[in-house]
Design brief:
Elements: E1 8-13, H1 20-32, E2 41-47, H2 48-51, H3 54-60, H4 64-85, H5 98-109, E3 119-125, H6 131-143, E4 147-153, H7 157-165, H8 173-182, E5 195-198, H9 204-216, H10 235-258, H11 263-285, H12 289-292, H13 298-313
Parallel strand pairs: 1-3, 1-4, 2-3, 4-5
Length: 314
């Protein structure tokens, strides 16, 4: 690999049964074959469904908290795993939770023979329907100075439901329909600039390989770490506030629907309240947890940001 190519973290996102795993395995097989040309990638796969069984996912689906916790374990285990792949001394502390330790161990055990001249191509195979989920992986790419890109598997709800029905352990049909409604597309943000949407058919491999090579030439630099005197908010608290803010957003949108707003006005309002939620959440992350976060009026903060948005637009 030439000096101007970096390791890459690539996200393969889409509905259940959209073809993510099939495409990832095709890429892995090609790259591991002696006939592979171009950048000598060393493929490594992080697949959520392989690390968390369908039965366990179904059980966790009864509680959003358990699903969130499981995904956090995966991110933390992947953090250690990527560091290990990049040659850093990254091993979880014996005090880490059992699920994290188990995931890290399974990721290492699944590692195949390393190419002496290759650099890791880390392919994450998961639904990742929220941008916040994908942003968490981007932070890992930035932390380890990796290239970063996203591959979206195009698939209609009907196709996904039909394919899912043929699986040995299908996910609930309602899960797919809900995911379709909640799926968030990339926006015009710097970290989301490298992405491609493919259907898994002819030509998909070529598009993905071209994207990977482009991303490898644009590795991200870690953000400078500055000493801070503030006590950052625990991730669990941020998650709680995010859920509460989402509930407020739902209420505001529901109120607009009850007022029988036009479709265009409703769409505009949805964008405004979602932007306000993001701004409030960003503001909360800047506060000193010990001194400023004991009492937070989320509805008041939302209203203040909405007032600023509407006044700025008038």
């Amino acid at each position: 690999m030439t000096a101007d190519h970096a390791s890459v973290l690539a996200l393969f996102c889409g509905l259940p049964a959209s073809g993510k795993t099939t495409l990832v395995q095709r890429i892995r097989t090609v790259l591991e074959s002696r006939e592979a040309r171009g950048v000598p990638w060393d493929p490594c796969v992080i697949c959520y469904d392989e690390l968390v069984s369908t039965d366990a996912q179904a059980e966790m689906a009864q509680s959003k908290g358990l699903t969130k916790e499981s995904r956090q374990h995966l991110l933390e285990a992947s953090d250690y795993y990527i560091g290990w792949l990049c040659g850093e001394c990254c091993e979880p502390s014996p005090m880490c939770s059992d699920p994290l330790m188990e995931m890290f161990g399974r990721l290492k055990a699944a590692r195949r023979g390393q190419k002496p001249d290759g650099k890791p191509l880390i392919m994450v195979d998961d639904n990742l329907y929220y941008r916040s989920m994908r942003a968490a992986w981007f932070k890992l790419a930035r932390k380890y100075s990796l290239g970063f890109c996203q591959v979206f598997l195009l698939c209609s709800a009907e196709q996904a439901i039909q394919r899912n029905a043929t699986r040995l352990l299908p996910v609930p049909e309602l899960t797919i329909k809900t995911m379709v409604q909640k799926f968030e597309l990339p926006r015009d943000e710097p970290w989301e600039q490298y992405f491609v949407a493919v259907d898994g058919g002819p030509g998909s491999m070529e598009k993905v390989m071209a994207l990977l090579e482009t991303a490898s030439k644009q590795p991200w630099s870690p953000v400078d770490i500055v000493d801070s005197i503030t006590d950052p908010t625990p991730p669990s608290q941020i998650h709680i506030w995010d859920l509460e803010l989402r509930a407020i957003v739902s209420k505001l949108i529901r109120q607009a629907q009850e007022e029988k707003s036009t479709k265009s006005k409703l769409q505009t309002w949805c964008l405004v309240v979602q932007k306000a939620r993001q701004n409030v959440l960003a503001y909360l992350k800047t506060l000193d947890f010990c001194n400023e976060k004991k009492e937070v009026d989320l509805e008041r903060l939302m209203q203040e940001h909405l007032d600023c948005s509407t006044s700025g637009a008038s």
